[in-house]
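Consortium newsletter contribution from the modelling node. Members have asked for a concrete example of what our holo predictions look like. Here is one, prepared for the magnesium ion complex that several groups have been discussing at recent meetings.
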Amino acid sequence: MSNQNQCVRGADVLVNAHLNRGVGFSAEARDRLGLRGLLPPAVSSAENQVARALALIDSRPDPLGKYLELDAIRAADENLFFKLLIEHTDRFMPIVYTPTVGEVCQKFSHIYRFPRGLFVSYEDRGRVEELVANCPQEEVDVIVVTDGQRILGLGDLGMNGMGIPMGKLSLYTACAGIDPARTLPVTIDVGTNTEAYLNDPLYLGLRRERVTGDEYFALVDEFIQAARRRWPKVLIQFEDFGNHNAFELLRRYQDKILCFNDDIQGTAAVALTGVYSAVRVTKKPLAEQTFLFLGAGEAATGIANLIVDALVDEGMDRAEALKHCCLFDSKGLVTAARTGLAENKQPFAHELPECRTFLEAVRAVRPTGIVGVAAQPKAFDAAVLREMAAINERPIIFALSNPTSRAECDAETAYRETDGRALFASGSPFAPVELNGRTFVPRQGNNSYVFPGLGLGAVFAQAEWMPTGMFLAAARTLAETVSEEDLERGSLYPSLSEVRDVSMKIGVAIAEYAYEHGLARNERPADLEAAVKAFMYMPE
Ligand SMILES: O=C([O-])CC(=O)C(=O)O
Ligand SMILES: [Mg+2]
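And here is the predicted structure:
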């Protein structure tokens, strides 16, 4: 608690979510803070407060209702909110994060109640510094920023996309112990091309079509400069930008400031972990794997590039490594014969026959794994899955699009159509599947396993910037947490209930990388792991 916070007394404490402990305040604290009479007389134990909150949340049958209860708890008492999230991660992650957060975003303007974060509108261009100065946070460690153009697999949600930076930052705190008082969700609102929002009287964003080109980049830059002037060491995470802008922003800032793009680099690290787990099962090394991606955007080329980097790191020639990844986009298989390909796809345009359907492409490429990242629901149908099972003893099937409604296939279909041989991961959660007397426990190949730890390590070491080596290190560290028992059950990732420990390990690995490579702006503590653990926020 800062000195400034220690001066806050009386009712002001109760309306400050960082400070308020509500009925959890002890008699002594009530006297000290001038709260006597402002709360019901009984003092609740922590268990009692959690039990009351759980009952309230459970009284709401639908996920959105549960979200609204949690959101209200957060607005009143942040400590309690994070206690719930940390003690019941498995249960609440699908509420504050994918898939429910998708619905939250779609309805954001209709359910808006509590102020949080920073809204940078195009109308405020030229005075963004003033907006940043208005933020109450004295210090900010992590910013997650979106422009709402490609929210999960749901498309352009405009300002409504703010639910995503909010959800990501909740995970930063719950999974990696970033102090919630030092996080800032940001939406840069340059308009939306989604008619439904422009015609919705309750829509809270800018009513105009998206600003593009130089004016767009100038506004994003004005924000980045203003944020870094106020908080020079802040980590900026780019989230759910449209393809074109996402690649361009990463190109502009990647090696100049402390930042990363979660959809390109975070997703890549987590997918590579899934691949490392899968090859432990197939016993065929990475060098013998070939991947066919359904999609050719941020996630697809982010993952493909990191697989290539991993192969090069193992000693393979880069030109050869590139051939291990093939892309299938809206026009079909990406081949050398294709013209006008976006820059990110060009390295993956190989000498391959023209294929118009994904099934044809599977037959032509004969991949060991398919990776769905195009938000095309059910695109991995029975024919595709059976073909993969015919080509491979243990086919790798990653249906990574979010939320659940956008998944390329569900877990049950993946296991059923491959006679239980699929090595499956998905972006959104699926329940365990019973098949032929076996229970499969699929887990999420979602960047939530890595971005909190990546950020923790980078913030801890006050890294200058985040090179590719950090993302490889994150993937390898995460892979080491997958046990033989996990693999036995078909789990390519550890249990979410372990995510805090996993994030700590990734944080240590990333900080270590920063110290070893001269990227840190502080001294390495002698006992790095103990120091990182001590740095992590924990609710009281
Ligand atoms: O938010 C998630 O669940 C994963 C992600 O970054 C995306 O799908 O854009
Ligand atoms: Mg994302």
